[in-house]
């Protein structure tokens, strides 16, 4: 029964991923000596693998915070460019394993299991490369994001992030996120 639930989860979360395939998830390392406090704050989505849930989305950002109970919260928001309305989501994030590594699980909207959120590399001030892969039997679904502290990062910042994809032989078939004409606060 559990395998069927996992399979359904892959179908729900994996089908919207552009990077689906046969075989195991790639072996990647996550950020060592991860500093959660330095990671907190606003991250803007610069590039990503295709996600159907974000089609038509622009000004995508994630705001990381920790409450008084040490619970990690992420508020994700975007503007649907076609219909011109704001979409917001609230996630709870938990460390997955060693708390000194950039490996997390993200829990969304009452779903009883978390989705992987692996910070492959970040310098905390400019960019973060995040990867996620879920595997059931011989099928995997991969997601990846380049997050930046600026809505419009420099080419130098993006080059550093792209180098992480090269390091792990990950596809760089990324889509640029529209960060034009975004409101200062929404």
TrEMBL record:
Keywords: Disulfide bond, Glycoprotein, Lipid-binding, Secreted, Signal, Transport. GO terms for molecular function: lipid binding; pigment binding. Residues 1-17 form the signal peptide. It is found in: Secreted. Residues 41-173 form the Lipocalin/cytosolic fatty-acid binding domain. The keyword Transmembrane helix does not apply. This is Apolipoprotein D. The lineage of its organism: Eukaryota, Metazoa, Ecdysozoa, Arthropoda, Hexapoda.
């Amino acid at each position: 029964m559990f395998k069927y639930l996992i399979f359904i989860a892959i179908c729900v979360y994996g089908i919207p991923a552009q990077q689906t395939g046969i075989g195991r998830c790639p072996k990647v390392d996550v950020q060592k000596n991860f500093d959660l406090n330095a990671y907190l704050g606003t991250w803007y989505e610069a590039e990503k693998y295709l996600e159907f849930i974000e089609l038509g989305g622009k000004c995508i950002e994630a705001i990381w915070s920790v409450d008084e109970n040490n619970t990690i919260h992420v508020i994700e928001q975007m503007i649907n460019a076609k219909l011109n309305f704001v979409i917001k989501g609230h996630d709870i994030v938990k460390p997955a394993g060693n708390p000194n590594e950039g490996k997390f699980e993200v829990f969304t909207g009452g779903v009883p299991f978390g989705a992987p959120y692996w910070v492959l590399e970040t310098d905390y001030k400019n960019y973060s490369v995040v990867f996620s892969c879920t595997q059931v039997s011989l099928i995997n679904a991969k997601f990846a994001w380049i997050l930046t502290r600026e809505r419009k990062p420099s080419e130098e910042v993006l080059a550093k992030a792209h180098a992480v994809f090269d390091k792990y032989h990950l596809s760089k078939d990324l889509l640029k996120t529209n960060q034009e004409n975004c409101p200062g606060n929404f």
